[in-house]
Amino acid sequence: MKAMIVNEFGDSSVFKPTVLAKPELKPGHVLVRVVASSVNTVDMMIRQMGPDLPLSPSAPAVLGMDFAGTIEAVGQGVTDYAPGDEVYGCAGGLADLQGTLAEYMLADSKLIAHKPKNLSMREAAALPLVAITAYEGLQRAQVKEGQNVLVHGGSGGVGHIAVQLARYFGANVFSTGGGENQLNLIEELGATGINYKTETVADYVQKHTQGKGFDVVFDSVGGANLLNSFEAAALNAQIATTVSLLELDLTNAHFKGLSLHVVFMLIPMLHDHKREVHGQILATLTDIIEAGHLRPVLDDLSFSLEEVGKAHDRLASGQGLGKVVIDI
């Protein structure tokens, strides 16, 4: 099979075309003919950092986590899928799991679900990592109908899904963006846009919650922005974040009695821990998507398997809007 491989880690030029043997079928797994994959920030981190990032595979490696494709064969014990089924998932590209940047991949059947019928393969491939992350974060934050929910970075990969899911759960959704294109997308997805470059946290908390703060804050920006989340939160509010690799002053969180949920969706893959939960979330998302409540936003540019380096550059540039997808 054709594949793109990294023999060393570094800039986007490290990807090299190669030919590998098809993966051998294993019990509990399916062999998938990959049609599309999408690029996530963690894919770029693995490519750049290699062994400095504990979850990285050893070189030579096939990277890529998200995929959509068609099942070619099923292993012993797999009963929910059959050859010919169209599926999607986040099932490789780290530790000892072969990634998606190849014509075929072996996927644990617990990590996948049937592809939504109303999405193309490219659209479905854009979803797994970001959609599972957004769903898990909102569920852990116990989002409820009628609550005021703030999503930081609502035009980004995780953020644009969190905006739509929070609306699906019945919340009043507000989201930060940094420019006209971002704010237009946020409004199109059904949230009230907040320009974080021109409005202070105190300003928009007063404007949208009469100074009380937001019941739930989903922070897909994270890092130092968590201090803004603490400031924007109501008393006893819930905060979910996807980025918390830093030292942080929790004083404000203490005096507000906030609950902080750190979402690291790679745990099931990395540690073979409750993998079936990801399959269950994806199946739920398929129902939500087929009912018309959720859609991925794709970047205008598309890339072939051989152009994976350019796809990484596109995501890194910050000039795209929506998920960057690679046609395999």
From TrEMBL:
<dbReference type="InterPro" id="IPR051603">
    <property type="entry name" value="Zinc-ADH_QOR/CCCR"/>
</dbReference>
<keyword id="KW-0963">Cytoplasm</keyword>
<dbReference type="GO" id="GO:0008270">
    <property type="term" value="F:zinc ion binding"/>
</dbReference>
<feature type="domain" description="Enoyl reductase (ER)">
    <location>
        <begin position="10"/>
        <end position="326"/>
    </location>
</feature>
<dbReference type="Pfam" id="PF08240">
    <property type="entry name" value="ADH_N"/>
</dbReference>
<comment type="subunit">
    <text>Homotetramer.</text>
</comment>
<keyword id="KW-0521">NADP</keyword>
<dbReference type="Pfam" id="PF13602">
    <property type="entry name" value="ADH_zinc_N_2"/>
</dbReference>
<dbReference type="InterPro" id="IPR002364">
    <property type="entry name" value="Quin_OxRdtase/zeta-crystal_CS"/>
</dbReference>
<dbReference type="InterPro" id="IPR036291">
    <property type="entry name" value="NAD(P)-bd_dom_sf"/>
</dbReference>
<dbReference type="GO" id="GO:0016491">
    <property type="term" value="F:oxidoreductase activity"/>
</dbReference>
<dbReference type="InterPro" id="IPR011032">
    <property type="entry name" value="GroES-like_sf"/>
</dbReference>
<dbReference type="InterPro" id="IPR020843">
    <property type="entry name" value="ER"/>
</dbReference>
<keyword id="KW-0694">RNA-binding</keyword>
<dbReference type="GO" id="GO:0005737">
    <property type="term" value="C:cytoplasm"/>
</dbReference>
<dbReference type="GO" id="GO:0003723">
    <property type="term" value="F:RNA binding"/>
</dbReference>
<dbReference type="InterPro" id="IPR013154">
    <property type="entry name" value="ADH-like_N"/>
</dbReference>
<protein>
    <submittedName>
        <fullName>Zinc-type alcohol dehydrogenase-like protein</fullName>
    </submittedName>
</protein>
